[in-house]
């Protein structure tokens, strides 16, 4: 019963602390910052738009679409999974799983993977949408499962990392972790390579496991819990991990943003930060959406800030995504903002979904895909 209450409190915490912009010292909650005026330097052009059921739903879901080849896959909170041609928007197949989806979508190696509130992982055939298998795991799945073709790696809300056989869904191994007393509602999507499964935990640690047996290869603490209250000591890694070359990029809530060596877990650089949505990188620079609403560019060679834009304060930003020469972020009112990678100035803005834009924008080549909270999926290019 204690665990049940902890997870219920964690869900409530996500909806209150995050909406407040994490400003515990303020006596009165400040409203989201007004959008600043600026002169548009580029234009975002909509190539196609599709409706994906009810989108993120009423709870704090982060149902990010996935691209595999020329197909894009998206799911809504009620179990509708749709495959589309990513260039034309033509629907390839549409399935109703009739379950509450909470972790979506993982795609690759011929599979489309979703996780559910009931603690299931469902694998669909990427070409037809036919169900290949379902597997029961230990608790709800709030992040997309990932696969290397041999195993499917799942991280559950209770901080367990689970490997399933990619062909059958049979459990290969489970790695147990003791979660923090209080957590934000969410888990970051794990990474999987040919030999390593890597996950960020609610305790502020990143752990790498051998994919064959689930044995630890390395463990690295990115953030140290600090403060007197459990609320102050939350250091969740909820924004997922980003892998580029041999570097893992990670950020924690009330902790740090850092680069880790893939093979050893050694910290290559680090800087104080607080984010629950994640990071992106490009050309030696790292971009982070802070919990406060500030977007920051960091030089990973020196770990110093190159620029900081606080004009979107308290607007509950999505994770940043590098798009051409720009950085794209969404906000609570459904606006997609483009910022210059050079100095952080605004260069374009487009409203995607009036219900908000929480999921990280997805970029493939010259195309950006934005999935709004209300279920609107839009493909955009720069004109």
Automatic annotation (TrEMBL):
Protein name (database record): Outer membrane protein assembly factor BamB
Superkingdom, natural source: Bacteria
Subunit annotation: Part of the Bam complex.
Keyword terms: Cell outer membrane, Lipoprotein, Membrane, Palmitate, Signal
Compartment(s) of residence: Cell outer membrane
Keyword Lipoprotein tagged: yes
Species in which this protein is naturally found: Zestomonas insulae
Residues of the signal peptide: 1-19
Function in brief: Part of the outer membrane protein assembly complex, which is involved in assembly and insertion of beta-barrel proteins into the outer membrane.
Pfam families referenced in this protein's UniProt entry, alphabetically: PQQ_2
Membrane topology: Lipid-anchor
Domain Pyrrolo-quinoline quinone repeat: 78-309
InterPro entries reported in the protein's UniProt record: BamB, PQQ_b-propeller_rpt, PQQ_rpt_dom, Quinoprotein_ADH-like_sf, WD40/YVTN_repeat-like_dom_sf
Protein's UniProt keywords contain Membrane: yes
Family as reported in the entry's similarity comment: Belongs to the BamB family.
């Amino acid at each position: 019963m204690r665990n049940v209450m902890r997870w219920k409190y964690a869900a409530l915490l996500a909806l209150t602390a995050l909406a407040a912009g994490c400003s515990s010292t303020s006596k009165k909650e400040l409203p989201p910052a007004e959008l600043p005026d600026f002169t548009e330097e580029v234009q975002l052009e909509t190539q196609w738009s599709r409706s994906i059921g009810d989108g993120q739903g009423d709870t704090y879901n982060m149902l990010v679409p996935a691209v595999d080849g020329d197909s894009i896959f998206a799911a809504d909170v009620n179990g509708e999974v749709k495959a589309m041609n990513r260039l034309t928007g033509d629907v390839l197949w549409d399935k109703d799983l009739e379950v509450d989806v909470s972790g979506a979508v993982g795609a690759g190696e011929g599979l489309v993977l979703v996780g559910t509130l009931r603690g299931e992982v469902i694998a669909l055939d990427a070409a037809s949408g036919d169900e290949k298998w379902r597997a029961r795991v230990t608790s709800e799945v709030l992040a997309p499962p990932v696969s290397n073709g041999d195993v499917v790696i799942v991280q559950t809300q209770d901080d367990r990392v689970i490997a399933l056989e990619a062909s059958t869904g049979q459990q290969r191994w489970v790695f147990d972790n003791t979660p923090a007393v209080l957590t934000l509602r969410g888990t970051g999507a794990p990474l999987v390579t040919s030999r390593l499964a890597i996950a960020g935990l609610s305790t502020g640690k990143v752990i790498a496991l051998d994919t064959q047996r689930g044995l630890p290869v390395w463990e690295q603490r990115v953030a140290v819990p600090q403060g007197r209250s459990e609320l102050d000591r939350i250091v969740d890694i909820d924004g997922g991990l980003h892998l580029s070359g041999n570097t893992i990029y990670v950020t924690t809530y009330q902790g740090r943003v850092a680069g880790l060596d893939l093979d050893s877990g050694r910290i290559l650089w680090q800087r104080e930060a607080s984010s629950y949505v994640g990071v992106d990188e490009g050309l030696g620079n790292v971009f982070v959406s802070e919990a406060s609403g500030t977007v920051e560019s960091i030089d990973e060679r020196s770990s110093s800030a190159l620029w900081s834009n606080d004009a979107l304060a308290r607007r509950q930003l999505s994770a940043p995504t590098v798009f051409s020469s720009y950085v794209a972020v969404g906000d609570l009112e459904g606006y997609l903002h483009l910022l210059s990678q050079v100095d952080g100035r605004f260069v374009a803005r487009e409203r995607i979904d009036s219900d908000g834009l929480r999921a990280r924008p997805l970029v493939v080549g010259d195309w950006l895909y934005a999935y709004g909270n209300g279920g609107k999926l839009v493909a955009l290019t720069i004109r």
